[in-house]
Each structure stands twice: as C-alpha cells, then as structure tokens.
C-alpha cells in the first residue's frame, strides 16, 4: 500500500512540475510593443523562452516575420534586420530594426511590400494581410551573408 501511495505521490509531483514548466514557458514576457507611425510592432526572440512566447503570440498579430540565414546544413536565426513595409500606394507604414529573429506587426488588411535588409543584402516580399488572419513570412538569406556587416 505504501508503494502505491508513493507512486501516486511521485506521479502527482511530476505532473505539477510539468504543468508549472508549461505555465512558465507560456507566460514568458513578450518584448515591449513599439510604434512606427500608425503601426504597432514588437520584435525579438533571443532565447528559447522569448522565442516561444513570440511564436505563441504571433497568431494574434496580422503579420509575423521570421529572419534566418541558411547554412549548408541548417538555418540560424538572424537579428538586427532592417525592415521597411510599404502599403499598396507606396507609403511607408513601418520602418524598424528587428531585435531578434521575429517581428510582429499590427497592419490593417491590405497589400504590402516588405523589404528586409541584413548585412547589405535586401530581400523583398509581397504580403496580403487579411482581416482576422495572421500572415507569416520567412526571410531566408544564403550562407554567403556576412553577418559582421550588420
């Protein structure tokens, strides 16, 4: 009987620890929300907890951008990416430097041109932001990107 109680107690402690760990990860603080003109954004994702928190939060933001450098065997996250977003009329609605591999932006529904520059290399993407949805775009630079030029 004592063995059964110990096993039950051990299982309860393990479950509590796992639940606490999941809660701690889910409640990791997000970086501060900033503004660029009329657009609110946040950027970051340095460290596993902040990265997980941003990825969780990204579903509530109209636009989620992710930045990485493709090596021969894997991709490494990139930071210090200069981001410019223009609306369909060519008006700049956001200009920011990402402080980590993620940038989330609250954009109104519409079509946008996104420009991301890392180490002097600029990538361009067209983005369609739809009401009530989150659009995710990945910017991937090649292995020849010289991160020291950022």
| SSE sequence, one letter per element | HEEHEEEEEEEE
What structural category characterises the helix and strand content?
Answer: alpha+beta
Shape, per Cα inertia axes? globular
Tally of strands: 10
The gyration radius over C-alpha positions equals 20 Å
DSSP summary: helix tally:
2
> Mean pLDDT, nearest integer?
84
Oligomer: single chain
Instruction: Outline the low-pLDDT stretches.
Output: 1-25
Beta-strand level of the residues, as a percent range? Answer: 35-45%
How helix-rich are the residues, as a percent range?
Answer: 10-25%
The largest β sheet comes out as: 6 strands, mixed
N- and C-termini, Cα separation: 65 Å
Describe, in short, the structure shown.
The protein is of the alpha+beta class and 150 residues long.
What does this structure look like?
With about 150 residues, the protein is an alpha+beta fold. About 25% of the residues lie in helices and about 45% in strands. It has 2 helices and 10 strands; from the N terminus they run H-E-E-H-E-E-E-E-E-E-E-E. It has helices at about 1-25, 50-55, and strands spanning about 35, 40-45, 65-70, 75, 80-85, 90-100, 100-105, 110-120, 120-130, 135-140. Strands 1, 2, 3, 4, 7 and 10 form a 6-stranded mixed beta sheet that branches. It is globular and about 35 Å long. The chain starts with a helix and ends in a 9-residue tail after the last strand. About 25% of the residues are buried. The model is unreliable at about 1-25 (pLDDT under 50).
């Amino acid at each position: 009987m004592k063995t059964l109680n110990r096993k039950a107690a051990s299982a309860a402690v393990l479950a509590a620890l796992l639940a606490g760990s999941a809660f701690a990860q889910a409640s990791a603080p997000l970086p501060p929300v900033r503004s660029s003109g009329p657009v609110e954004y946040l950027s970051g994702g340095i460290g596993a907890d902040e990265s997980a928190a941003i990825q969780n939060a990204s579903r509530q933001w109209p636009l989620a951008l992710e930045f990485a450098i493709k090596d021969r065997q894997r991709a490494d996250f990139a930071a210090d990416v200069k981001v410019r977003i223009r609306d369909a009329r060519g008006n700049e609605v956001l200009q920011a430097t990402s402080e980590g591999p993620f940038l989330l932006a609250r954009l109104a529904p519409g079509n946008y041109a996104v420009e991301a520059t890392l180490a002097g290399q600029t990538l361009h993407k067209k983005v369609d932001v739809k009401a009530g949805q989150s659009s995710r775009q990945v910017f991937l630079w090649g292995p020849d990107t010289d991160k020291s030029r950022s």
